[in-house]
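To the wet lab folks,

You asked to see what we're planning to order before we commit. Fair enough. Below is the target structure as tokens, and below that is the sequence we designed to fit it. If anything looks off to you, flag it before the synthesis order goes out.
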């Protein structure tokens, strides 16, 4: 039987960073569900589809093939055979992903692949509804969060390191709006699963967060 670890939380909480490092520490496969949704967003942006046009989004999903592969231990996301990994952190892509992730056809297409991976291997999976909808029976569930100000600051530094200048207040406003959409969408809204461990990283560095996650996993595995 495979062992599944679900990590949920709002945008900018550090889910991908911690999930990736946790998987490496434990020897598990890391499945970045957010990257899969962003890849779908890339597809819709390329097709110039309005995020409110449900009919066209449903049609576009039928022509989108999204897969995950690894090169030298690094995750690569392929959209219709093309590597789009470098585009996934763009703000326009993230916003589009947040807007269309509530569409049933989008979620159904990507969730199917995610569940298939989890059945066949030990995985660490992060996203917005992993512990509540995608892997409700995961052996370990962690809800990773941080204050809006802290998440905005982290995103600001990330963009700055890439040579991208953006006003910190605009980033914080964008995060607040994305949180509201994610938490209030009709299908699979962002929320903490009842059996998830809350981990607030506002005052933690990456190393401390990782060690806390490892400890939670070990404690849970002993209790099974």
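Sequence we intend to order:
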């Amino acid at each position: 039987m495979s062992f599944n670890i679900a990590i949920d939380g709002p945008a900018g909480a550090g889910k991908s960073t911690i999930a990736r490092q946790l998987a490496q520490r434990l020897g598990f496969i890391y499945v970045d569900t957010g990257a899969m949704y962003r890849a779908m967003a890339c597809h819709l942006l390329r097709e110039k589809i309005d995020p409110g046009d449900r009919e066209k989004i449903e049609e576009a999903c039928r022509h989108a093939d999204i897969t995950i592969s690894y090169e030298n231990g690094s995750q690569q996301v392929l959209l219709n055979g093309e590597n789009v990994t470098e585009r996934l952190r763009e703000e326009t892509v993230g916003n589009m992903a947040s807007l269309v992730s509530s569409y049933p056809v989008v979620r159904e297409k990507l969730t199917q692949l995610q569940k298939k991976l989890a059945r066949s291997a030990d995985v660490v999976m992060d996203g917005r509804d992993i512990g509540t909808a995608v892997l409700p029976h995961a052996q370990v569930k962690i809800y990773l969060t941080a204050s809006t100000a802290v998440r905005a600051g982290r995103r600001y530094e990330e963009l700055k390191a890439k040579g991208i200048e953006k006003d910190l207040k605009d980033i914080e406003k964008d995060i607040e709006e994305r949180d509201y959409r994610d938490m209030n969408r009709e299908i699979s809204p962002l929320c903490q699963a009842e059996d998830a461990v809350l981990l607030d990283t506002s005052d933690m560095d990456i190393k401390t967060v990782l060690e806390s996650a490892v400890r939670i996993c070990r404690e849970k595995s002993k209790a099974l």
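Structural context that might help your review: The chain has a mean pLDDT of 90. The CA atoms of residues 42 and 93 lie 6 Å apart.

Thanks,
Computational group
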